[in-house]
Amino acid sequence: MFKDILKSVNGYDNWSIISMLIFFLFFVGLIIYVWKLDKNFSNYMSSLPLENEENSK
């Protein structure tokens, strides 16, 4: 059923390539962002849920 619907769309092959490129670039950008993230900031953010309320006052 979905194949029939997608075949009726003009440029179906182009849209599949464009969507794959968008997802690929997003995840590559996300990996680069995480890789360049400051380690001290990452450690600080990872310990936030574990802090006691007494320490945060």
Write structural notes for this entry:
The protein has 57 residues and is mostly helical. The chain has one domain (2-48). Helix content is 77%, strand content 0%. The chain is built from four helices and no strands. The chain has helices at residues 2-7, 12-36, 39-47, 53-56. The longest helix has 25 residues, at 12-36. The radius of gyration is 22 Å and the shape is elongated. The protein starts with a helix and ends with a helix.
Average per-residue pLDDT, rounded, comes to 81
Whole-number tally of structural domains: 1
Major beta sheet summary: none
Provide a count of the helices: 4
Return residue spans where pLDDT drops below 50 for at least 5 consecutive residues: none
N-to-C series of helices and strands:
HHHH
Please report which band the strand proportion falls in: under 5%, 5-15%, 15-25%, 25-35%, 35-45% or over 45%. under 5%
Question: How helix-rich are the residues, as a percent range?
Answer: over 70%
Radius of gyration: 22 Å
Distance between the termini: 59 Å
Approximate shape: elongated
What structural class should be given to the helix and strand makeup?
mainly alpha
Count of DSSP E strands? 0
Can you give keywords for this protein?
57 residues; mainly alpha; 77% helix; 0% strand
Q: In terms of topology, how is this protein built?
A:
Blueprint (H helix, E strand, L loop, with lengths): L1 H6 L4 H25 L2 H9 L5 H4 L1
Q: What does this entry show, briefly?
A:
Helix content is 77%, strand content 0%. By secondary structure, it is mainly alpha-helical.
